[in-house]
Amino acid sequence: MRGKFITFEGVDGAGKSTHVEWFANELRSDGHAVLVTREPGGSPLAEKLREIVLHEPMDAVTETLLVFAARDDHLKKLILPALKAGTWVVCDRFTDATLAYQGGGKGVERGLIDALKKVVHPDLVPDCTLVFDCAYEVSRDRMMKSRRALDRFEREGQAFFGRVRETYLSLAKAEPGRVRVIDSTQTLEAIRLELRSQIGAL
């Protein structure tokens, strides 16, 4: 049987990355083989492209093409072989992030993103996407408290993050069976209780 494909999404600072390993360990405790990965990145080539995307100034269309180039390599080298082997894959961001950041945030046409999606992964849709949601003020405060250098996406302003957030919420409304919104302002315990219930529904 093919493994399940689960993606974590949300604006920068929403806290999704805090829960990825915990979620994967819960799946392992249920007896599943689990691969944890991320985008952009995952494979050696995709990690090199990640550094370019996160730190080099570029046009939004160029950015979108590079993200999908990284995704194509990541899928072929890591994700698809793992799923075929029956391994469950937990990925920190996937194509919904491109729709939210490059599409909603930067105005890249949905038609281009959909066309690239059809080329790169025409038959693959996440079995479950968990969107960690919070207001801009919350995400900004968390990023500032991290005391690390912010990448060029994290340095974007409130209007940009507002568009990204609205795109994620629109995706959840359009695909309620796949995309589930997690209120990331809850306590750690409450969030993990909710995540545990999502595991039970897979």
The helix content is 55-70%
Strand order of the largest sheet: 2-3-1-4-5
Number of domains: 1
Q: What is CATH's topology name?
A: Rossmann fold
Give start-end ranges of low-pLDDT stretches: none
Q: What is the CATH architecture annotation?
A: 3-Layer(aba) Sandwich
Give the class-level CATH name.
Alpha Beta
Whole-angstrom Rg: 16 Å
Number of strands: 5
Order of helices and strands: EHEHHEHHEHHEH
Descriptors for this entry?
5-stranded parallel sheet, 202 residues, 57% helix, Rossmann fold, alpha/beta, 8 helices, 5 strands
Summarize the structure.
The chain is of the alpha/beta class and 202 residues long.
Describe this structure in words.
The protein starts with a strand and ends with a helix. By secondary structure, it is an alpha/beta fold. The protein is 57% helix and 13% strand. It has one domain (5-201): 3-Layer(aba) Sandwich (Rossmann fold), CATH 3.40.50. The longest helix is centred in the middle third of the chain and has 25 residues, at 60-84. It is built from 8 helices and 5 strands.
